[in-house]
Each structure stands twice: as structure tokens, then as C-alpha cells.
């Protein structure tokens, strides 16, 4: 509930700031200095609500279940690219030499928010894989569950676990990004065996060898 309120609140703040900046571009109600002060104050509110939303998500994630931090390259690159895009937009707007430059602080606010939240997620290990009784929980920008009953086949190749679902979609976990690799492999092998998930013959043997310390 609190997470939903903070999400709605920050989005309303951002939309309001965009609308105010656009109207001011057309009618010039505020001076550049006054508009910058308004943008800075509302930007701080936006960052605060974004961090609050993150902390609320962290609270939900703090469960009495083993969590394996998982920050893969694609997630990190996506965040870096997103931040760089907004910073580039900010530079283009600022250097435009027209009144449209008044919009550049909004891009900086979004880039700064993404940087702070990503850093907090990394420090608090909020991107993770967690193993439950009959499903695996993946957490990145959002939570997603993969139930054992949804999995058609599991393959293990080149140090990557592939979970192939019955709808032919696949999820992968790269062991290079799992800190407690041996513990994770043992847990996942027990989970697959307990839930009778089908594994490729060679992949199943590799998992059992790793789980038993014969890697």
C-alpha cells in the first residue's frame, strides 16, 4: 500500500513538474532562477519518494529465506545506459541556447534518482534470486516468480542455468554473478530434485557433481 502511494506520488510530482516547465516555456510566468528553485525542491521530493519506494520494497524482501544477490551485466548496462541517456538529454537541452533549456533539470533529477536507487539496490542486495518450496523468486526492477510446475526443462551449460518454461520462454542465471556459487548450486539441485523438475541428462549430472563438490 505504502509502496503504491509513493509510486503514484512521485509520478504525479514528475508530471506536475513537466507540465509547469512546459507552461512556463510558453508563457514565461517564472524567471529562470525561480523555476530552477521550484524544480530543485520538487526534484528532492521526487528523489525522496523514489527512495521511500525502494525502502518499502526492501522491507518486503527481508524475509526469513536465503537470498542470493544477483546483479548481471545486462541489468547493470541497462541502468548505466538509462542514466547516460538522461544526462545526454540534459546536456542537449542546456546547450540549445533557447528557453527549452529550462527542462534540463528534470533530466538530471531522473538520472540522479536512477543512480541513487541503483546504488542502494546494490549495497542492500535487492537484486537477487531466492529459492522457495515450489517456486524461485527473481528480483530486479520487479519481482517475478517461476513455479516448478511452469518449468518444462532445466539445462546447465557454460556455467549458466537455463529455466525453459512450458510457454517456451526462458530465464537464465549466470553463475559468475552469484557470490555463493557452491551453496546456490547445492540448493538449486535439491529444489529441482524435490520438485521433480526435468533436467537434461548431462546438465543433471553436472549439477549433481557441483552440488557434491566434484566440480
* Helicity, as a percent range: 55-70%
Task: Round the Cα radius of gyration to an integer and report it.
Answer: 23 Å
Q: For the residues shown, what is the average pLDDT?
A: 80
Shape: elongated
**Largest sheet: number of strands, sense, barrel closure:** 4 strands, antiparallel
Question: First CA to last CA: what distance?
Answer: 46 Å
* Unreliable residue runs: none
What does this structure look like?
This protein is of the alpha+beta class. It has two domains: 122 residues, no CATH class; 83 residues, PH-domain like (Roll). The protein is built from six helices and seven strands; from the N terminus they run ααβααββββββαα. It has a four-stranded antiparallel beta sheet, covered by helices on one side. The protein has a three-stranded antiparallel beta sheet with strand order 5-6-7. Helix 1 packs antiparallel against helix 2 and helix 5 packs across helix 6. The longest helix has 30 residues. The radius of gyration is 23 Å and the shape is elongated.
Set out the fold topology:
Blueprint: H1 2-27, H2 32-61, E1 67-69, H3 73-94, H4 104-123, E2 128-131, E3 135-139, E4 143-147, E5 151-157, E6 160-165, E7 170-174, H5 181-194, H6 201-211
Antiparallel strand pairs: 1-2, 2-3, 3-4, 5-6, 6-7
Give a brief rundown of this model.
The protein has six helices and seven strands, in the order H-H-E-H-H-E-E-E-E-E-E-H-H. It has helices at 2-27, 32-61, 73-94, 104-123, 181-194, 201-211; strands at 67-69, 128-131, 135-139, 143-147, 151-157, 160-165, 170-174.
Amino acid at each position: 500500500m505504502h509502496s503504491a502511494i509513493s509510486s503514484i506520488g512521485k509520478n504525479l510530482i514528475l508530471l506536475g513538474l513537466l507540465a509547469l516547465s512546459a507552461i512556463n516555456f510558453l508563457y514565461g510566468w517564472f524567471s529562470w532562477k525561480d523555476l530552477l528553485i521550484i524544480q530543485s525542491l520538487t526534484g528532492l521530493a521526487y528523489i525522496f519518494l523514489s527512495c521511500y519506494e525502494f525502502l518499502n520494497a526492501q522491507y518486503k524482501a527481508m524475509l526469513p529465506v536465503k537470498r542470493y544477490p544477483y546483479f548481471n551485466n545486462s541489468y547493470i548496462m541497462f541502468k548505466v545506459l538509462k542514466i547516460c541517456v538522461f544526462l545526454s538529454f540534459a546536456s542537449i537541452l542546456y546547450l540549445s541556447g533557447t528557453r527549452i533549456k529550462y527542462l534540463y533539470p528534470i533530466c538530471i533529477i531522473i538520472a540522479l534518482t536512477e543512480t541513487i536507487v541503483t546504488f542502494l539496490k546494490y549495497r542492500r542486495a535487492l537484486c537477487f534470486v531466492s529459492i522457495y518450496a515450489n517456486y524461485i523468486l527473481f528480483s530486479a526492477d520487479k519481482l517475478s516468480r517461476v513455479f516448478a510446475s511452469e518449468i518444462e526443462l532445466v539445462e546447465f551449460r557454460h556455467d549458466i542455468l537455463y529455466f525453459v518454461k512450458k510457454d517456451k520462454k526462458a530465464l537464465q542465471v549466470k553463475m559468475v554473478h552469484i557470490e555463493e556459487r557452491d551453496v546456490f548450486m547445492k540448493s538449486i539441485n535439491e529444489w529441482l530434485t524435490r520438485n521433480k523438475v526435468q533436467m537434461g541428462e548431462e546438465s543433471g549430472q553436472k549439477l549433481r557433481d557441483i552440488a557434491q563438490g566434484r566440480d
